[in-house]
Amino acid sequence: MSDTWLVVGLGNPGPGYIRNRHNIGFMVVEELASRLGASFKTHKARALVATGRLGAGGPKVILAKPTVFMNLSGGPTASLAKFYNLTPDHVVAIHDEIDIPFDSVRLKMGGGEGGHNGLRDISKVLGTKDYYRVRAGVGRPPGRADAASHVLRDFSSTESKDLPFLIDAAADAAELLISQGLAAAQEKFHPAKG
Predict the structure, then answer these.
(1) Cα–Cα distance, 113 to 135 (Å, whole number)
(2) Where residue 114 falls among pLDDT bands split at 50, 70, 90?
(3) Which domains does the chain have, with CATH numbers?
(4) Angle between helical axes of 117-126 and 74-83 (0-180°, round to 10)
C-alpha cells in the first residue's frame, strides 16, 4: 500500500475569490503546507503543488490547489493522481459544505456530491466517487438566499473571527485521516449520537 497521499483543496483561482466560503479548501491546504514547511510550486497538471511528510518517516503528502475554476477540479486532480501513481483511495478532497454548520468538520469516503460542482467534476474525471472528502462546514445561506451566491461571498465578520479554528480543525482532520484512518478521524470530529 502506498504511503503517498494527494490532498486537493478546492477553490477558485484569482484574488477576487481568496476569502470566499467556496475557497476554504485552498485555505486548509495552505495551512497544511505551512505545517509541513512546504512551498507551492507550479505543476504541469494545472495546479500549485507542495510536498512534505507528516512527521519523520510519516506518509508523503502532495498538497494541491488547482489553478482552474472549481467546476473543472477533476482534470488537475486526476492528472496529479496519475503523475504520482495514486489510486482514488489515496485522494482526499477538502471542500466547503453548506449542509454542515459553520465551524464543523465532517469526513467521508465516497457518496454523493451534494450539488458541489468541484466534487462532481472530480468524480466524473476519476471515474469513481470512492475518494475521501474532508468537509468544512460553511452553513446554509439565511432564508431563501441562493446557495451559489452564498458560497461565492466572503465569510462574514463574525465567521472570520472563528475561521482560523475551522481551518485548523479541517487540517487536523486531514492529517488524522491520513495517519490513522477514516474511523479515527470520524470519531474525533463527528458529534456523538445519542
Answers:
(1) 11
(2) confident
(3) 4-189 (3.40.50.1470)
(4) 40
